[in-house]
Structure formats: structure tokens, C-alpha cells
Design a protein that fits this description.
Distance between the termini: 11 Å
Strand content: 5-15%
Order of helices and strands: HEHHEHHEHEHEHEHEHEH
Oligomer: single chain
Number of strands: 8
CATH class of the largest domain: Alpha Beta
Number of domains: 2
Largest sheet: 4 strands, parallel
Structural class: alpha/beta
Helix content: 40-55%
CATH topology of the largest domain: Rossmann fold
Length: 259
Amino acid sequence: MNVPTMAEMMAQGKQPEVLFWVGCAGSFDDRAKKITKAFVKILNKANVEFAVLGTEESCTGDPAKRAGNEFVFQMQAMTNIEIMNAYEVKKIVTACPHCFNTIKNEYPGLGGNYEVMHHTQFLKTLLDEGKMTIEGGSYKGKRITFHDPCYLGRANEVYEAPRDLIQKLEVELVEMKRCRINGLCCGAGGAQMFKEPEKGNKDINIERTEDALEVKPEIIATGCPFCNTMMTDGVKVKEQENEIEVLDIAELIANAEEL
């Protein structure tokens, strides 16, 4: 796989079209790494000039901010902004809605002004510009439901791009009763991903998985590595992992194209 770093690009005197912000999950979580690789395969096939920061990339600071530590958030954010501004980054694409939301809405206040896109928006743009095509392949006719990530949907009102991509796979897209603006959280936002849940009658991800199972899908599509983990765990708790797959939209497209 061809994944150049910003440092390598600059050494060659090149400026990539986009910076691919990988994020903590996409870098370190074994499951989320598959999403990162799928997205990179699509970018390579579409001949997109992109680069990553590599070891210069740090956490955006989202978990620290949501957990209430504004000081740590600002330290992490300022470091990232300094590096990106030094590279004269203009456009950023990320597969994590938490990174997307933080860089798009909170970095400008600290001097980081960029055009920020979620990977589903970016892939939709490539599709519209004719730089890539999507065919159903092995997914043709399958029943798929899409779980709206909070920081993509309700926080930033991105609802159509992921659905448009799914429908291009020639599948049957079925909506959960709580979707779009009424979507239910998977339970991992607000730094909850990194701690055990509080005591209660039912974990949120189980509630959300039940929403999905109600519409009898063959695949639950996600657009966020945190959601992917929570929905996968929910499917396992319900002992449905042999019947139902949980896949990111980038994985669906890469698999359909047999990349």
C-alpha cells in the first residue's frame, strides 16, 4: 500500500491534495486498522494525492475535552495545529467523526482553519466527479441498515453522503426506527469508549443493537470506528455474529470492488 507522509511529500517538493487524518482508533485499534486500510486502498485506486502525518500525528484531544480536561485538549490541539500549519495543510479527510467534529468546529478557535471532510463525504465527492465507481459486487441485494454516528449526524447534520454510498452498492437500505436526527448514540462518545459503563439496567450499545436487529439486516453499516466497536460487541452479546456483519462504509466499498 502506498501511504506517503507529509514529511516525505514536502521533501520531494510536493503538496498533497488532502491530509488523511488517521486518528487514534484507526492507528492503534486492530479492528479499526482494517477501516484505515480499506480507505487507503480506495484512495490509491482513485489516484488521490494524499499524505498522513505519521508519527507527527497526535490525538485531536476530543476524549480529553469531552471528559472535561480543557487544558489537555488545548495542549494536544495546539501541537497538531502548529504541525499542520507548518505543512500548509488546507484540506483534511478522516474516517473518525470525533476527529472530524473536533478539527472542523473546535480547531478554528485555536488558529487551525481547514476544510474538513468525513470519509463518506469525500468518497461521495470522488463519485460525483467520476474519479471512482461503485458497484454492488458481493453485496448486491443484501439488507443493510446504517447507524448514524452522533458526531457525524446530529452534531454536523451529515446524513445523505453515507446513505448515497450504501445505495450505490445496489443493496436494500433499511432504516432503524431511531435514525438520522433521532439516531441513538452507540454509547462510546464523550470519552465513554475508554472506561467501563456506569451501573444501570442495560448498556446503550445493547439498546442500539436491538434497534438494528429489529429491521433484520444482514449487515450493520457504520461510519465511525467507535460505533463499529460498540455495534460489534452488541451483536456478539446477542450471539448474532455469524448472521450479521458490522462493516464501515469504506470496507463495504473496498470489498465490493475487491480491492
